[in-house]
Amino acid sequence: MQSSINISNLITQTLENFWGYNSFRDSQEEIINAVISGKDTIALLPTGGGKSLCYQLPALVLEGTCLVISPLLALMKDQVQQLKSKGIEAEYLSSELDELQEEEIYGRCIEGLTKLLYVSPERLQNKNFLERIDEIAISFIAVDEAHCISEWGQDFRPSYQNIKNFRNQFKNVPCLALTATATPKVIEDIKVKLGFNQYLIFKKSFIRENIEIFIDELSDKYQYIFELLKNSNSSGIIYSRTRRDAEELSKFLQNRNLKNVDFFHAGLSVREKHQKQEKWLKSNNQVLISTNAFGMGIDKENVRFVIHFSPPASLENYYQEIGRAGRDGEKSYAFLLWNEQELKNLDDVFQNQTPNKTEFLKTISYLYSKFMIAENELPEQIFEVNISKIQEFTKISKAKIINILNFLHNQELIYLNTVKSLSTLELKFEVYDLENLPKKDSFFVELLLRSIDGLSTHKAQFSEANLCKKIGVENKFLKERLREIHNKGFVDYLDGSLDIIRFLKPREDRTFSGKWWNLFEQIQKNKLQKWEEMKFYTRNKEFCKMKLILTYFGEKNAKNCGNCYVCKEKNPTQNQQSIEKQILEALKKRAATLDELAIMLHYPQKERLQEHLIFLLELGKIRMLDFRTYMIK
User: Fold this and answer.
1) Tens digit of pLDDT for each residue in 475-527?
2) CATH number, domain at 101?
3) Is residue 171 part of a domain?
């Protein structure tokens, strides 16, 4: 009895010391107790439900190192950074690290200093990892984004199937599987493929009672969003499907004096991303227009609205993204904007980004031929890849090529980096041999040695823009000269503004035409099915929007939320007085047109709204300022 009280106190103290909370959210404490007691556990918590705490806290309480299996390098980096900022020892292993860096990490785990070690599921088959992990005391295994283990999941990763065999090395080590988006079919897959026999399952309802859902069919989205933001002083996220949409919408709004708006996408440099993200996190009224590159691992409580500029690819994506609003429990809004022409265009996008088998194999064959990689060969160096050049040679669309490259990256066949970063330069000769270079080249390299710190001893990172200012040349000329001495073999130069590729497994043509093509084809079919489900959700005006989400995720006997626009339309009498009161409150602040009131009140059915306005006019509570503007009487 005393022991359980002590553990309970320790859990509470750990929560307060490292996270600053004095109480848990729903189910968190029960999940943590299950892990600490050594039971296999499935935790199904919606976005914003605090999944990461469910393994991070017990990792601190238990002896040894918690092994966290996570599908995305960016997510691993973000989690480790957040943990270190709290004073918690955490590390991640990835193909980016060299042998020395990996050995340092293993050493800290063996000594018991590192409490959480993040790895990709692919690493579970790495020979060196399997040898070193035996030397580490594993407290428990946490499988993040566990839906990836299922072929019916949103982001199927075949490497997740390795976890069951890996667990056989640690028969007495418990496993915690966590996910925010899993249908009943996926949950069943998780149980089987992780080898869970006796286990506990914690499933919190997906309902978000404080989020009011609106789905608006309209043509002029730009004006709608402008009117919405003009009357808002809250923090929010606008999700767009493309980088171009994010940038153009941001420019449109800024040109109309909305200065608290910015854009965010994967094409930005690491520094730019960090600056924009930090500004948004610290602000109470900043709005970020972003592709789905933004939001992962972000925990901001006072996001009052999420707007989808276009329908996302799946209901899983949609639910995760609207779940970033209202994490403080206060009333928040989710807007989804669409029109029929756009849905048809997106149908075409899905079709046009799906290559056939010939195109799939042709793209992969080009990569290996371009970099002169033979069958069964695995080169060590990193290569620059130009997608436009692949497109030019293969005559395959850019969208299909990107789809294929992303697939290869997700399966860890290649490491693809499309993020802008600093360039790198490394000498391929000893400094004392500088005088043996051609005079023109030795002069240029000497200039580089004086201008780039550390270049004489190791691979150095540098900014071309800063270097141009230092030595007084144009960017184009600098890049030409760097490429020239790179081609001569004097230096190894990687342009940080270009995409880079590193091959992680030897070339095996037979597996691409068989195993990998079959998997790729299955994933594409799954994507199309989920898109069809998203279209049904978007178009449907008969069923409660929250109820449709709950039903999709397997919640039986779900009730209407009474909060979304469908529910409100079905109960006009109940909502009539509330809407008329809202109209009067809005017009007390300023005169407004029908369109402006519809946006201010988050009431998309203008015909119904006009009926309320006519009723108020007849009662003499409001009057017309001109032929289209209403004001309080």
Assistant:
1) 889 989 998 999 898 988 888 878 889 898 899 999 999 999 998 998 899 88
2) 3.40.50.300
3) yes
In a shared domain, residues 151 and 183: yes
Yes or no: say if 245 and 310 are a contact pair by the CB < 8 Å rule: yes
Q: Are 88 and 117 in contact (CB under 8 A)?
A: no
Query: Which tokens belong to 4?
Result: 């359980």
Q: Are 188 and 151 in contact (CB under 8 A)?
A: no
pLDDT at 2: 41
Among 203, 238, 270, the domain-final residue is 203
Specify the DSSP class assigned to residue 557. T
pLDDT at 589: 85
Q: How many domains does the chain have?
A: 5
* 285 CB-near residues (< 8 Å, 6+ apart): 232, 233, 234, 235, 260
Over 70: is that where the pLDDT of 572 sits? no
**Strand 40-44 with 175-179, pairing:** parallel
Q: Beginning with the edge strand found earlier in the chain, give each strand of the sheet holding 491-494 in spatial order.
A: 460-462, 423-427, 491-494
> What are 205's two structure tokens?
């309802």
What confidence tens digit (pLDDT) does each residue in 115-141 have?
Answer: 999 999 989 988 889 999 999 999 999
* pLDDT at residue 4, rounded to an integer: 55
Query: How far, in Å, CA of 335 to CA of 318, rounded?
Result: 11
pLDDT digits (tens, 9 = 90+) for 30-66: 999 999 999 999 999 877 668 899 999 999 999 999 9
Q: Which of 548, 599, 611 is nearest to 575 (CA)?
A: 611
Question: Could you please report the per-residue DSSP string of 11-58?
Answer: HHHHIIIII--SS--TTHHHHHHHHHTT-EEEEE--TTS-TTHHHHHH
Are 215 and 233 part of one and the same domain? yes
Does residue 606 sit in the same domain as residue 549? no
Residue type, 459: K
